[in-house]
Design brief:
The chain is an alpha/beta fold. Helices cover 36% and strands 19% of the residues. It is built from nine helices and 14 strands. The radius of gyration is 17 Å and the shape is globular.
Length: 272
C-alpha cells in the first residue's frame, strides 16, 4: 500500500472554545495548532480561519495572514483552504481563498442538511463555478462527499470536463443528516469512485478513529482534527490537534501503513 496521508482539520467554522479551550481562533493559535499537527505527522492542513473573537470568515486577507504565518513554521506542509466557509455565506464570499492559488482547496459536490434548519447549499452551478476557478488557477480540488450521490455528481462533472482527473475525494461520515459511518458505508463509497482516484475518510465525532482505522486498512487516507472531533478518547478532551494526529500515526503503525511526508503526499495526489 502507498503511504498514508494525514490531513489535520485544525479548527473548522463551528466548534468553539466553550467546547474545547484549545480550539484556535487567533493567527498565533492557528499556527500553534498547525505546527502541532505537522510535527505529529500531518502532511496537509485543512484550513478554515476565524477572527480573534472566533467568528468564521472567508476573508482573503485573513487567509493570507494565516497561511503566511503557518508557512514560516511549517514550510513544506500542504495547506488546503476550505471553500465551504460557514452556512449562509455567498458563493463569492466562500471562494475568496482561491485568489491565493493554493495547491489544493475543497470542492463540495452537493447540498446537505447540517441539522435543525441549517442547510449547506451547493447547487450544480455553484459546483461548476468553483471548479472552473480551480482549473484556471491550477488548484487541485478535494471533492467533499457527504452522501454517495455526490460522488455520482463529481464523476459526471469530470466526464463533462468540469473537474480534472485524477480525482481526490474526502468522505465525510457520521454527520446527523448524511451518510453514516459503518464499515459498509466506507466500502460502498470507496467502491463508487473511478479507478485511479484517491480518497480520505473523515469520521465526525465519536466516529473519527473508527473511520480512520477502516480507511487505513482499505488503502485510503485519513483526516482528523478539532473541526470534526474534540476528543482523544471517550470523555477525554484533546489538548491539541497534534494529539489526534499522533493517535492516527499509532494506528497506522499497528496496521502496517507508513506515514507520508508532505513531499510524498504531493506525489500521491499528483500535485507535482
Amino acid at each position: 500500500m502507498e503511504k498514508l496521508i494525514i490531513t489535520a482539520a485544525i479548527c473548522g467554522a463551528e466548534v468553539t472554545k466553550e467546547r474545547n479551550p484549545n480550539v484556535p481562533y487567533t493567527v498565533h493559535e492557528i499556527v500553534r495548532e498547525a505546527k502541532s499537527a505537522v510535527d505529529a505527522g500531518a502532511a496537509i492542513i485543512h484550513l478554515h480561519v476565524r477572527y480573534d473573537d472566533g467568528t468564521p470568515t472567508q476573508d482573503v486577507g485573513r487567509f493570507k495572514e494565516c497561511i503566511d504565518a503557518i508557512r514560516k513554521e511549517c514550510p513544506d506542509v500542504i495547506i488546503q483552504p476550505s471553500t465551504g466557509g460557514a452556512v449562509g455565506m455567498t458563493d463569492e464570499e466562500r471562494m475568496q481563498p482561491l485568489q491565493l492559488k493554493p495547491e489544493m482547496a475543497t470542492l463540495d459536490c452537493g447540498t446537505v442538511n447540517f441539522g435543525g434548519d441549517e442547510i449547506f447549499t451547493n447547487t450544480e452551478n455553484t459546483i461548476k463555478v468553483f471548479s472552473k476557478r480551480m482549473i484556471e488557477s491550477n488548484i487541485k480540488p478535494e471533492i467533499e462527499v457527504f452522501d454517495k450521490g455526490m460522488i455520482d455528481t463529481a464523476v459526471r462533472l469530470n466526464k463533462e470536463g468540469h473537474i480534472k482527473s485524477p480525482m481526490h475525494f474526502n468522505f465525510v461520515m457520521g454527520t446527523s443528516c448524511a451518510i453514516s459511518a459503518e464499515a459498509r458505508d466506507i466500502v460502498y463509497l470507496a467502491g463508487s469512485i473511478p479507478p485511479g482516484s484517491t480518497f480520505t475518510a473523515s469520521g465526525i465525532g465519536r466516529h473519527e478513529f473508527n473511520c480512520a482505522a477502516m480507511s487505513i486498512v482499505m488503502g485510503g487516507h485519513v483526516r482528523v482534527g478539532f473541526e470534526d472531533n474534540i476528543y482523544l478518547s471517550k470523555g477525554v478532551v484533546a489538548q491539541s490537534n497534534g494529539e489526534l494526529v499522533a493517535k492516527v500515526v499509532r494506528l497506522a503503525k499497528e496496521l502496517g501503513r507508513e506515514i507520508a511526508t508532505p513531499a510524498e503526499a504531493r506525489i500521491i495526489l499528483g500535485l507535482k
